[in-house]
Amino acid sequence: MTDKLLDNQEDVTRAIFSPLMIDDDGNLSRAAFALRHNEDYISVAQTSISSWKNDIRSIPENANRRLYGYCLLNVKSIRELNFVYRKYQAVFDVVEKHTPSNPSHSGIYVLLDNAILKGDRKKGLKNIPEDVAVDTFTMRYQRKLVNLAQGNIVRL
Predict the structure, then answer these.
(1) What is the pLDDT of residues 53-101, one digit of tens each?
(2) For the residues of 69-80, what is the DSSP string, one character each?
(3) How far is CA 51 from CA 57, 74, 107, in A?
(4) Count of CB atoms within 10 A of residue 114's CB?
(5) Would you say 104 and 51 are in contact if contact means Cβ atoms under 8 Å apart?
């Protein structure tokens, strides 16, 4: 991981799309924090970059993916979600992933046993120790992020 780490006092936002990421009652689903196929971080926007709301609004929508709003997360709070799963240390970190077309783009990495996890369509995750139940670990890290985000949802 060579990207610049965000400072603990920074806030980031995760764009929330319906219907997959949130139900009719405003409850986030674990899908809001899924690692997509071949991605090794969960995309978020850095709120200290003035374009962050426009960057969120520019994410493509389709018939099954409508922008609902966003959830606000503090970087230090994300990092404090670290936990031990079996004998492995699970670590969250947040880094800059800025691009010219998306200046506020940043990412939440999920590491297990010092390996950055990557989404995989067939296995669920890549870079995970063989003795780890992928589904169980995935549910646990996603639930931690959902619990942190649930009270901080803003509807657009």
Answers:
(1) 999 999 999 888 899 999 999 999 999 999 999 899 999 999 999 999 9
(2) EEEEEEHHHHHT
(3) 10, 18, 16
(4) 9
(5) yes
DSSP track, 24-84: TTSPBPGGGGPPPBT--SEEEEETTSTTHHHHHHTS--BTTBEEEEEEEEEHHHHHTT-EE
Which tokens sit at 129?
């120790």
Query: Is residue 134 situated within a structural domain?
Result: yes
The reply to whether 147 falls in a domain is yes
Decide if 5 is inside a domain: no
Q: Using DSSP, how many helices (H) and how many strands (E) does the chain show?
A: 3, 10
Candidates 72, 65, 68, 111; CA nearest to 92 is 111
150 vs 89: CA distance, rounded Å? 24
Is 81 within the bounds of a domain? Answer: yes
Please check the confidence at residue 1 and state whether its pLDDT lies above 70: no
* Domain around 118: 11-155
Residue 24 makes CB contacts below 8 A (sequence gap 6+) with none
Please confirm whether the linkage preceding 100 is cis (ω < 30° from 0). no
For residues 112 and 109, give the distance between their C-alpha atoms in angstroms, rounded to a whole number. 10
